[in-house]
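lol so apparently i was supposed to do this last week
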Amino acid sequence: MSDTPVVAVVGSGPVGATYARLLLEALPDARVVMFEAGPQVTERPGQSVRNITDPDEKARARERSQGPQAGEFRASLGIPAGAVVEGMFTARQGTHLLDFGGEGSAHASNFPAAAAATNVGGQGAHWTCAIPRPAFSEMIDVIPDGEWEDLISTAEGLLHKQSAAFSDSPVGAAIRELLSREFGDELPDGYGVSTLPVAGDPQPDGTMRWAGADTVLGPLLDQGSDTAARFELRDLTLVRHIEHDGAHVRGVVIEDLRTGEQSIVEADAVVVAADAFRSPQLLFASGIRPAPLGRYLTEHHVVISTVALDGDRMADLVSDDELSAELARRAKNPTDPVAAVNRIPFSEPDHPYSAQIMYAETPPFPLPSDHPASGNRWGYVNMGYGVRKFPRVEDGATFSDDEVDYRGLPNFTIDYALDADEEREIEEATALLRRAGSALGTFIAEPRLLPFGSSLHFMGTMRMGTDPAVSVADPYSRVWGFDNLVVGGNALIPTANTMNPTLTSVAIAVRGARHLAEQLAATRAARV
Ligand code: FAD
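anyway here it is w/ flavin-adenine dinucleotide bound
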C-alpha cells in the first residue's frame, strides 16, 4: 500500500460516483482516480443532459454519449444519421445498442433493445430519475433489515430525493384520483396510487433540475474543496485490464482514447462500476471468471401505452385557471415535457407489478395534425408497467475468448428466454394497463410489450450473495476470492425486480464503500 491509499474507479455513473464521494469523505488522505471511457458532454461533469435547455446543445450531448455507433462511426457502417434500419431497433436518446449490427457488435437477438451510454455520468446523464424503494421480495435478503433503512436513506440523500416533485400539479393529482377510483380497493394500505419519488432539485419556477452523477459527486466537483483536490476524473480513458494475482488487485491498464497510449495505474483497490454488461466483460478480460459472471440476467419487462387525457373527466377535477397555471409552468422548459410522475407500486401477493405514469404536455411521438387527439389541451400520459423476470442461470451474457468487440474486449452473446409464469404476468400487466388507460382517456398507442432489453435496467450479471457458487460478489460487493476488488451497479441486484433499480444500486454501493473505507483504514493502521 502506498503512503496515501489510491482507489481506481472504473465508470463515472451514479454508482462509481457514490464510491468516489464516500471513500474520499471517509479517508482524509486517500485519492480516487475515476476512469470513464466516454467523453464529458456537459459543462459540469456528469450533469443530467435533461437540464440543458438549448435543444441543439442537448441533441449534441446525447449524440456524443452514443459511443462509436454515433456520428462518423455510424456513417462508416453505411447507416445515415437518424435512420432506422430494417431489423435494427434504435436506442433511447443518449444510449447506443449493444447489438448494433456492425462489426464488433455484441450478439443479442433475444435481448435486442439492450443499450448502454458511454459518457461522463453514464446512463445517469440520461435517466428519468425515478427512484422508488424496493419492497417485499424485491428486497435483498443478504443485507440486514436494520441496516437497510440507513443505506437507502443515505442513497436518497446522495441522489437528492424528492418525494413530492410535481405534487402541486393539479393535473397530476387528477390522474391519481382517477386511477385510485379504478384500482384503490384492490391495493394494500401504503401501496396505493401515489407520486413517484424522483432525484433532483425543484426550482423556484416549478421546473426540476434533474440529478446526475454530478449530484452524487457533490463537493468533489467544488474547486477548492478538500475532496476535490484528491479526486481526478479522466474521461475518454478506457480500462482494458485489471492487474491482479488471483486474490489481490494491483491496479488497472488504461488506454487514453485520444492518443491510443496504454499505461498501468497502480491502486490499493479497484471498484468496477461500468454497467451490467461491460463490468463483467472487464472482469472476464482480466481473467477473473467465476462461473456466475454474466449469468442470472434479469430486467423488468415493460408493457407501455400512451393515452390522451379525457377533457370531461379532467375538467371535473381541475379548474380552467388551474390548467392555465400548469401550462404556463410547463412553458418555462419546453424541452423537458414531463410535468408530473405518478405510480402504482409493487406489492405482494396481488399486485407484483409497478406502474409508472408520466404526464406530459406532448406525446412521446409526433401525432398527425388531423388525429382526433392532436393538440389535446389536457395533455397525455405515457405509462408502463414493469413486469418481473426471475433469475435463472441460463439467462445472461457468454463472453468469448475468440472474438473481440469494437473496443477490442471479449465479445459476448446474450441468451434470454421467458417461462410460462413470466409470460402470464406480462398478460396480466397488459390487462391492468388497458384498465388504467381507459380510466384516464383514449389510447393513442395501444398497450404493447416492448422488445426485451428496453427497460435499460439490467440486473443479476454480477449478483451479490452469500454463496460463491451462485454469486459474483459478497454482501460487501467484493468479488469472491479478492480482498480489494469491488463491483457496483444494477448487476449486483439478485432479486426479481419490477422497478427502477438505481436507488437500490446506490444503497448497495454505500455499504460497499463504507466497508472498503474501513478496510483501507485498517490496512494502513496496521502498517504504521
Ligand atoms: P452507468 O450509469 O451505466 O455508468 C457506467 C459507465 O461506465 C459508463 O459511462 C461507461 O461508459 C463506463 N465504462 C464502461 N466500461 C468502461 C471501461 N472499460 N473503462 C472505463 N469506463 C467504462 N434508473 C432508475 O433507477 N430510474 C430511472 O428513472 C431510470 N431511467 C432511465 C432512463 C434512461 C433513458 C436510461 C438510459 C437509463 C435509466 N435508468 C433509470 C438507469 C440508470 O441510468 C442506471 O441504473 C444508472 O445510471 C446505473 O449507474 P452505474 O453507475 O451503475 O452505471
